[in-house]
Structure prediction request, 398 residues.
Amino acid sequence: GNIGKMLDFYSQFNPSPLSIKQFIDFGLSACERKSFIFLRKELPVRLANIMKEIHLLPENLLKMPSVGIVNNLYITSFEEIIHFEKVDVNETTLDKFCQALIKIRNRHTDVVQTMAQGVLELKESHDVDIQTENSIQYFLDRFFMSRISIRMLINQHTLLFGGQLNGHSRHVGCIDPSCDVIGVIKDAYENARFLCDQYYLASPELRVKQHNGKFEQKLERSNEIRIIYVPSHLYHMLFELFKNSMRAVMEHHGCDSDNYPPLEVLLVRGKEDICVKISDRGGGIPRSQTDHLFKYMYSTAPQPSKSDAHTVPLAGYGYGLPLSRLYARYLHGDIVLLSCEGYGTDAIIYLKALSTEANELLPIFNKTSSKFYRTPVPTADWSSQCGGGMATRQLSMS
Ligand code: W6P
Prediction:
């Protein structure tokens, strides 16, 4: 049908990744018309690229009701945006466009949960082989990354031009050009600690150290570490990692202990990287488990019961760690876990120190994309005796 043709058309184009510097420049020159012209093409391109990929999912997953729901949301939103393809640009159009974006953002609020539900539906109805699991991992990383990027574009446009301008704030849309990293660390810690106290009636303390390599080299006048970043993304990563560390410490030391080892955070600014290392003495995890913590299929816990009103669905689904890593990777950073089993775990957030290197990382669809969904599990070319021990662990406090 017509929608199919439009999808074919827009999926031919590669998404245009922006750098954080471009986001800022766009925001400061603040031309709503320019933003509109860019987005009415770029949003359909990003939507079409990922919608094409939905159809490459393993057939069994594609048939799950929740995946159908998500697919329909995307179709509706795609259609709403391409309505703006050939309209003349006046005040009314710009206002309608803003309203449409807000409606689309609200429509897609629960997509992560719905997708997680789809994965559960698959697990409950089929045996999932390794190849299917790999395809799902590959897809969800790309799908959620696409979603992060689309929401970023929508947020920037609606915050800059949606009427409620906040002239007093230094923020440019959702970007803080002088983001106080220590401030975000303390904020995320306090909120994770609040949950931890509710759950365990105690919580580990926080110790923070910072080292500004650029200050040391006299490249900066202040040793305060401020970066150009999206504070909400940084908060999301830190909050998730703090919850995991706190949980590990509380479980490892028993709730009747009155002396929990503190969480130690080291914040470092180098020439190229900003590192935030969170060290816990929560007993660590076996090396064989660390990669699994980022897998959607391992972390998908059974649906929290409706009676358990305190359960936060996302935490219950356990997509916190893989999503946090995507937030880091979105602007070419990363999250790495290093554990010493029997002692504790270091979680490191890497961010780009230079706003010129902090470009969006976007999945692109092309006609060879399907090969990634058909790639067989490679045959072993190293000897091995061990099978896959697959203990599932629910990591997030909910
Ligand atoms: C653990 C397991 C984990 C995951 C992520 C972050 C910190 C920690 N600590 O024991």
